[in-house]
Each structure stands twice: as structure tokens, then as C-alpha cells.
Input
Amino acid sequence: MTDKERYEKLKYERKNVCRDMPEDEKKAMLELAEDYRIFLDRGKTERECVKEAVRLAEENGFVSFDQKPSLSAGDRVYMLNRGKNIMLCVIGSEDIEAGLNIVGAHIDSPRLDLKQNPLYESDGLALFKTHYYGGIKKYQWTAIPLALHGVVYKKNGERIDICIGENDDDPVFCVTDLLPHLAKDQMTKPMTDGIEGEALNILVGGIGAKAEDVPEAVKFNILNILNISYDITEADFLSAEIEVVPAFRARNVGLDNGFIGAYGQDDRVCAYTALRSIFEIAAPKKTAVCLLVDKEEIGSVGNTGMLSRFFDMAVAELAAKLRGSCDMLTFNRIIRNSACLSSDVGAAFDPNYPSVAEKNNAAFAGGGMVLMKYTGSRGKSGASDASAEFVHEICSILDKNGVIWQTSELGKVDQGGGGTIAMYVANLNMDVIDCGVPVLSMHSPFEITAKGDIYMAYKAYLAFYNDRQ
Output
């Protein structure tokens, strides 16, 4: 063996999905991508994601947990929490005390939320005040078409679902921006200050109602339109939950159609592939769990975030229905013997901004599903750091099943960083590793993912459910 041959044998070389994938899989990859685009358009909020997940789950033989008086191997059930969390389970042949195989993703995304008292009139225009949610670049949310999604509860308790801006004949909304001719002062500010949070007000109207003794005729006209269309009043906004999201649909990107561009791919790309994989599980040994949670973008807080007790309570309920009861010792053993793929996205290397990444440890679009041993910032602050034993176990499963994968960190060591739900899962005393899809333009209104990476994430989750012992 020559030195060159030995070097080729010993070195690690990245793969490329579309180059190294078997030809017979490419059709499946493209079909998955088309189904995923539909999911993105139907689920632009966490509530809509859960609604669509339930619809798809029931099509694939899942029923509500409450409809099953007892459970046995092969049963397919889902559990809901406040319309913003869902946990789907395929019951395994092993005792639940042997542990669960969990794929967990989040379904909230950065956005604008309407303030509780949002509507006002200023200088002949009607606008909605907003409060941004999650980590956004505020300037990216100006001068693009926006839609309203959410729920309003009237005084009599009736729920009104709001979705304006998605149909071709719907109006859309917009945060206006300065023309460059008058933006000299704005353009000299740091990018973080160019658009202030209190300036993210969306334009909703400009035609005044013909009314006597009404000082705010434009606002009055908007209130009339809302009352006629939805039978709501301004006071109903005080308890409403309305999100402002980009109005455009998921699209193919590139002359080769190799990418998907859409809002909310962090982290719905992992949520969808996790759903698709659990739908295809038939008779697992360990009980398979797909967990979709809320509030990750603001720290996994609240009663629908990963820090809530929903997951703990759901596991206890599951064990009690399988075993007749679930004491603390049983619960602890279930958790200790479980393992989780924290299915969250990674930052894809962007050749337009190479200085923030360290190439040897960056993920590349088209390079396959990405494993992130640890997250956190700088000195791994706020990180979950998977053990060598668990990383080896997962890598072995991926290799056995022909999954093309890569590893990454989130940029250079001192550049920044971020977190996922992994640290909160790890705090339960469970093995966990971040495992997802590289994303370009992450947290922007139009994120980009490679279709090959999406397909490999799906294959990875399916392999984990089937092969993790």
C-alpha cells in the first residue's frame, strides 16, 4: 500500500448527499420534500403545526390517548397539551421500564406577536403594535408581505380562528421602512439599532369611515371591518393570541430545485421529519416517542415549553396505562433507560460569511444530517454535551442504515452560540444529542435547507427508532 493509499484509508472525508446517495433513493427524497413544503404552508404557527400533526397522525392510525382504555404493543396514540404540544407514541414490545426512544423537536419560530392592545391610528394610517418573539434581525421584517394567524376569544367564550394573508385574494400586511433618500441617519446606525422594536408596527389600513363625531375615522373603519368579518371588538384583542408571519409560501430554490426556502424551518424541518419517521414505525422493541414542544426560541419556558412538566406527566400517564400504575421509582427507571435525539437545526456554512465559521467543524448544506455533540456559547455555557459512548452508539446506527451525516459546532468558539431543548432533556438524566438539518439564513423570514439533508434527517430518525436497543 502506498503512502497515498494509506492516507486515503486513514483520513476522514465528508460526503455529499446527492453525489453519494443511491439513485433509487432520489425519487423518495424529492417526494418527501414536496410533502414537507405542504406541511410548512399549513403550519406557520405552533397551534397550526399541532393541528396538522394530529391530522397526519390520524391518517396513519394514531388515536387520542384518552380513547384507549388500555395499551399493548403496536398501539399508536397521541397526547396533546394546550394545543401547542403533541407527543406521539408507538408502543414497543419491551416493558416501558426498558426506556423510550425519543425524537424531540420544537415547533415555535421567531416572529412578531400583536401586543394586547395593538390597534392605533396615526397621521391617517391604522397600524398594529407588535412585540417580536425570539431572536430576529429586526430589519429583515420590514418591507415584506406579512400574514396574521391566531385565535381570538369573544366575551361569550366563542373562539374565532384568524388567518389573513395566505390566500391569493387576501390582503397582506407590512412593516414599512425608510426610503434610502431619507435614511442617512438610519444607515449610519449599527444594524441592531437601525430598526427599533417599537417601530415594528404593521400597516393595516388607511381608508377613513364616513362617520360624524369620530376623531379616528381610519381606526373606526378597521374596527368595523373586523366586527363585520369576525364579530369581534377591540376589547377582544386583550386576550387574543395573534402572530405575524411572512405571507409567502414555501418554494423550491435554485435552478436545480435542490433547496427549499420558507419561513419557520427552524425547527419545523426536524418536526416534520420526526413525524414522518414515527408514522413508519410498525412494531418497535422500545416504545417510540415523537415529542413536539413550544417556546424553545425564548428559553423553553412556560407550560408548553420543554421546561414544563408536560413530558414527565405524559410519560407517567403512559406507564400507568401500560402497567396499572407508575410510582416514582418506575418513572426514574424509564427516564434513565431512555435516549433522545434533540432534533434541532444547525447553522450551515455560508460562503458569503466565511469568517464566523471554523470550516473543519462546520456543517455544509448538502452534506447530510448534522450531529452536534454539544451546543452552548463560548466555553460551552448552557450546553448539553453528549458522552463519547452515546455519540458512538448513534453514529453506529447511522452508518448501519446508510445515513449520510456530518458534525458541526455553531460557529467559531468566541463568535456566539446557542441552545436547544437538549440541555433540559439531559437534566432529566437521559442520554441526548442534537441531531438535525443544516440551515442557511437561520431565523430569517426565508430560511434555506437542502432537500438531501432533509431526507437524511428522516432516515436518521427512522433508524434510531428501529435500531436503538
In short: The CA atoms of residues 82 and 301 lie 14 Å apart. The chain has a mean pLDDT of 94. The two ends are 38 Å apart (CA to CA). The chain has two domains: 3-109+263-467, 111-246.
